[in-house]
Specification:
Elements: H1 9-12, H2 16-22, H3 27-34, E1 47-53, H4 62-67, E2 76-82, H5 87-94, E3 98-103, H6 111-125, E4 130-134, H7 138-142, E5 146-148, H8 151-157, H9 176-188, E6 193-198, H10 200-213, E7 219-224, E8 233-234, E9 240-242, H11 248-269, E10 272-278, H12 285-294, E11 298-299, H13 302-306, H14 311-316, H15 329-345, E12 351-356, H16 364-383, H17 388-391, H18 395-412, H19 420-427, H20 431-437, H21 454-471, E13 479-480, H22 481-490, H23 495-502, E14 511-512, H24 521-530, H25 542-551, E15 556-562, H26 564-567, H27 573-591, E16 597-602, E17 612-617, E18 622-627, E19 630-635, H28 645-658, H29 685-690
Parallel strand pairs: 3-4, 3-6, 6-7, 7-16, 10-12, 10-15, 11-12
Antiparallel strand pairs: 1-2, 2-17, 4-5, 8-9, 13-14, 16-17, 18-19
Length: 694
Amino acid sequence: MTGKSHMDGTTLLKKKAVGRIVSSINAELVTRRSFRPPKCRAFTHPFAALEEDHRYRFHIHEEAKKRLSRIIDNRVQRIVGIEDADASFREKYCRKRNIGIVFSGGPAPGGHNVIAGIFDAAMGANPENRVYGFLLGPDGVIENEAVELTADVVDAHRNLGGFTMIKTGRTKIDTKEKVSLSRKTCKDLALDALVIVGGDDSNTNAAFLAQEMMEDGVQVIGVPKTIDGDIQVRDEDGNVLCAMSFGFHTAARAFAAEVSNLCTDSSSDVKYWHVCKVMGRVASHLALEVALQTHANMTLIGEDLADYIDKERLIRSDYKDDNAYGITLRHLSRVICDGIIRRAAVGKNYGVLVIPEGILEFINEIQIFIIKLNTIIADYNRTHDTDFHSSFPILEEKLEYLRGLARRSREEGTFSVWNSRDDDLFADVPEFFQEGLLIERDSHGNFQFSQVETEKVIIGLVKDYLKILREKGEYKVGIERRYYRKTLQAAGLDPDRFGPVLFRNYDAGNFLLVEKEIFSQKTLRQVFEREKLLSEKEDVPKAIRKIFDKSVPKFKTQLHFYGYDGRGTDPTRFDCIYTYNLGLTVFTLIANGATGQMAAIKNLEQKFSKWEPIGIPIAPLMNMEERGGKLSLVLEKSLVDLQSPAFQVVKALRENWLGAVEDPDDYRRPGPIRFSGKSEEDRPMTLALNAISG
């Protein structure tokens, strides 16, 4: 205790110094808000126009031609700067407009800068322009819940993460009633344009609204947003038009910083395997970037697993369908076990494993379950007054319903999505995983991988198999030769007398592996007696027991999920610049009369001076996919390209990063996101590598 008098909290808060220390306005926030991102060259001129680029071709689906006839012939549009515009162009470009903006789906870092870019461009063209933000996502459009965005509001959110300015939501404007209400909202606000910032479903929505609202004179522009990085656009010839959706870089860096910390922890405490699940339901882009950023010991890439064919089983079988011999959960667990065993053999019974959230979707047997259950649930919901999960609230009731389907299939001899074989296989799945596979689907009818303990499923199998391998004596922790000799010599024992019997590789190697047949204290004694190193009355020397105990591995895990924290992270400088220029692109498309286009920046993988703002037609990108148990016309998600330089580099470095050697692990420290300073990277590593041609 000191002689100073003590003040209570209320009194302390009256002091200015205390206020400065605990204020929510800190130096980082001030720096972020004051940053004004550079503009692409096209936006450094007083005006910008559109030029159709006929070099790019798309394979157009017949259903898209039929349902999106008004915008199906849209072309890629290049944005070019204009120094001197004639009177008619100037009048069109600068006329007063009302623009509405809505965020749709999960947050992604950089969304506020899309608004800032639109707002700055709109006010620069005509100070009488009005920009409205719809509250809580598409519901705000349907219910006409909007606020006018002012300079003060926009400035308060520049370069900050989240969608807090106007919030977001997951409602889809996908019925005649919702479209009618949305049309009324646009009319009531006298909107000239509606901007939809979202993922693949949201941009799909943008295309349909552009089709529906063309006669009303309302332009609709989409903006590619998703931290998963699965909105990437290439034309039919493979030309990259949009290399990555915004928010990806920030989320990947946020996850990588945490995973890197676990690499440090793992190699410090040397007793845990950290299993890190990162977001990415359909594609593994985030896992790939995290692998590059951190050099984690093992990273699973779903697309790579889906490409696997068990050639040995295929050769042995008369049934020559490659798809029947893809990766299985059991085989995947064996692959992971192999890496764990090899690291343990060189004294590293610890490490970091990264898996994408949707890894199970790439495993054939699980994918079939998911497709069948999605169909069953969607069909039930369409044909009953209540939904599947309300009708069967507990697991046993759901299982009984499935058993009923299997019985009907067997007794009536009719085709059923769920048959007896399905029911038998499902019965072998652990109960917690059965529950996971039967959880409620999201608003789009998709299986919610983030709600399933994917890592628990995989690690459960790994633990079971490691136990078998430990009992067989194949899973051992390598004992450093120096430590072994020191321990025995300290006990007055001759290391060279016991070593050849105790270890299988005593004549070579720095890390010694106990013989496979020695897997317990009992077998240790038996071997020593057999080799005449002990008599029946002698005890195994304490030093030998100590060495043996250290060779017996204890597989301890810590499970982690990285998702929502990455969505709310303040954006990297890359995402700040990217999204601001996306906002400028949006306004330019609107000012030039475009609709049914997605704002994009071409050449993102190049240095900033080569970035080119463009408008990409959404309708030609659409394909038929299964959603909610039925085929729907949607924007296709982009998966990891296994031929890309980024993946090929990760593939080539896997063995090095596994670190199953005596040398220290090759962990990389990406560090936290540094908004200021010269050490911050200027683009995702994935893009930087993919920019390198052979």
